[in-house]
Design a protein that fits this description.
Elements lengths: L6 H11 L5 E10 L10 E6 L9 H15 L4 E2 L8 E9 L3 E15 L2 E10 L5 E11 L2 E28 L5 E14 L4 H12 L11 E6 L7 H8 L2
Parallel strand pairs: 2-3, 2-4
Antiparallel strand pairs: 1-9, 1-10, 4-8, 5-8, 6-7, 8-9
């Protein structure tokens, strides 16, 4: 799975050009070791936990760039060359196989009435106000569309799960990973196969849960005009 384009034009197009904000549901499931706290190591190195993705792959490099932003905003620092990192953060980013999902929706029903002529009988009176006769006039009633209610329908759609798993393990003196300190899994399901488009939403949802734990899987709703999305686009360039 390869990726060559930048996230910046993809997501800026969504955030800035979409007049009506869409809503995305991101699922978050996080765990942390009981002793994770103020003594949590602060330096880390990223590694691939996906058997088919190498750290040299362009896709891994691009995803890692934005994961670094996420971790930096959680007071973690990427270890520099020659510096022994405290944590190995395993990255598993992938797209699921296609799944068929049934979605229910309500469809409005409109009924159109045809136009028609109607005849109106009008009494005619003389100058004294006395009834003389009836006059008949025709009036045209144009066609009208009436709202009649809703009907519930089901639709089958093909969806894909975009999944990101981060697993932080303490590195021993021998450089081998040991105890897992924290783990966070985020996923976003939609009809799109574009992982890079979904990534900023997943990172924004994961941000409060790095090194934390959830009470089971939680659902986070994010709108595509959320200003928080921009922090995962410009952070690497402006140093914030």
């Amino acid at each position: 799975m390869k990726a060559k384009l930048s996230l910046i034009p993809v997501v800026l197009g969504i955030v800035l050009l979409n007049g009506c904000a869409s809503r995305y549901t991101v699922r978050v499931d996080a765990l942390s070791a009981p002793n994770t706290g103020s003594s949590t190591p602060q330096t880390y190195v990223l590694a691939s936990d996906h058997p088919e993705v190498e750290t040299a792959d362009l896709f891994f490099k691009e995803v890692s760039t934005h994961i670094n932003t996420l971790l930096r905003k959680n007071n973690l620092r990427e270890a520099q060359a020659g510096e022994g990192p405290d944590l190995r953060v395993g990255v598993k980013a992938f797209l699921s196989e296609p799944m068929v999902e049934t979605r229910s929706y309500s469809e409005p029903i409109y009924v159109e009435s045809r136009g028609h002529f109607r005849t109106v009988r009008i009494p005619v009176v003389n100058s004294d106000g006395k009834f003389i006769r009836y006059a008949y006039r025709e009036y045209w009633t144009p066609p009208r569309t009436h709202f009649a209610g809703y009907v519930d329908r089901d639709q089958q759609v093909t969806v894909y799960e975009k999944i990101l798993v981060l697993s932080a393990k303490r590195l021993g003196a021998n450089g081998q990973p040991g105890e897992e300190m924290w783990n966070v899994k985020v996923s976003l399901r939609s009809q799109s196969t574009d992982y890079r488009q979904a990534l900023p939403y997943m990172l924004l949802a994961a941000k409060p849960y790095i090194g934390k734990r959830t009470k089971g899987e939680e659902e986070i709703v994010i709108k595509d005009d959320d200003p928080g999305l921009l922090q995962f686009l410009g952070g690497e360039r402006d140093g914030r």
